[in-house]
Amino acid sequence: MPDILHRVGIKSPSTSAVYAALTTVEGLAGWWTIDSQGENTIGGELRFRFGAAGGFDMKVLELDEGTGVLWQVVDGPAEWIGTRISFALKQEGDYAIVLFKHADWREPVEFMHHCSTKWATFLMSLKSLIEIGKGTPHPDDITIDNWK
Amino acid sequence: MPDILHRVGIKSPSTSAVYAALTTVEGLAGWWTIDSQGENTIGGELRFRFGAAGGFDMKVLELDEGTGVLWQVVDGPAEWIGTRISFALKQEGDYAIVLFKHADWREPVEFMHHCSTKWATFLMSLKSLIEIGKGTPHPDDITIDNWK
User: Does B2 touch chain A (CB under 8 A)?
Assistant: First the structure.
């Protein structure tokens, strides 16, 4: 099944700040959407909302301190339900590397193309949050097309 | 085989300016790399260079006025050789939509993750070129990680 893949490198002496930005509601609100809520525990649910556009509910499947996070989408657009989103972290010199995967799309639909580009802009937002202290979470996210 | 997919929407009354930016050396130099050369004819080759990082040679397989372009990579990094890159264009209201695909990667290697994110930034550069008259081609391209 098709996957969305990305890699960003974030100037940071370790992966711990990036891990915190992926595993706390405050961190998630700093780069993805300011309307981030929920329980960041294994089996817990995280809820991300994007105003009138709706949002996503994720079940937390894995939390590996400093090295990775795995979520499964349990509610949201039909194309997303059942897909899995992971962030694998490692340190390379001055950079905390994020290997991102949004896996198990059923078909490479046009919406998947949109989400791939949009994820890239949100990962660059995560990079900005850590490097300069400010990301571009929704509603300040970058418009990529007529779907926002 | 895994593919990189993206979608951008560019504010433009038709797809013709975007098509020109994909099919002329001047256009390509405005958003991907200033060192773009070659023959934009079917069967011709385009050469893109990124300074010390090397570059890519593409054979032009298809040119469909206003609706699409297909290239095959004939020289460059081993992972790229034989892969195909397409830009499908269509108009939706005020937006020229670009559906991008870099297809037929043999394996979803870490370099593919990097290229996916990097393509997103270059497609946003294409969007800027058309919308505000200025892109961010190499060497002014956006750094995404420790691989540049």
Answer: yes
